[in-house]
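Repro:
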Amino acid sequence: MPRGRRPTRPPGASPGQRFYMISTLAQSYGIHQQTLRMYEREGLLKPSRSEGNTRLYTDQDMKRLEMILSLSRDLGVNLAGIDVILKLRTQIEQMQKEMNEFVSWVREEMKQGAREGFAERLEQALVRLPPQGIVRVEAPPLQTRPGAPAAQG
């Protein structure tokens, strides 16, 4: 057994979650450990820390690293661009989650409405709108310059 302390699990880690040390991750992806430390300094990666302050990377961190390396190596995106892309991706995921929750809520309301009857619910509505007719608006004729031929329509 190797000498030295083995890193402990970060506080609050779930029992089935796997963690990787920086040397393992660097070797797996063919990058230097300093590169991973730089990504952490730039805020692109946020590894967990053991009680002994050892960086511990999760499977989720590995997926994020794969995205960073793909953007950098394959597409030539610089670190500032990668940061923007990852933040936008996080915002999109959050918005998607909120949209899914909203759609679920609407579905539940529709089911409840079908059970209770829509007519009764409409009678209890806070704001009642009268039926609206279609309004047709015609555009004024185009004005022409003096001496120019009139447009024919």
